[in-house]
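Team,

Forwarding the record for the chain on the shared tracking sheet. I've put the sequence and predicted structure together so nobody has to dig through attachments.
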Amino acid sequence: MKSKWMEREFLLTLVSQILGILMLVGVLSPDQGQVLGEASGQIIGGLVAVISGGSYAISRGLAKKV
């Protein structure tokens, strides 16, 4: 079972809140925030794939040492 903070819904919510704060303080324009918001699902999916692949490679490497 995955940790609650690794759930995709949590990560998407976190990204949308961070984007909202950045737009509120003027770091991002609304157009930039919309583009990043639309791409956030793909970005998070890619990060999860990289993290899971890396952790699998590390665990297999450690298992073969023993």
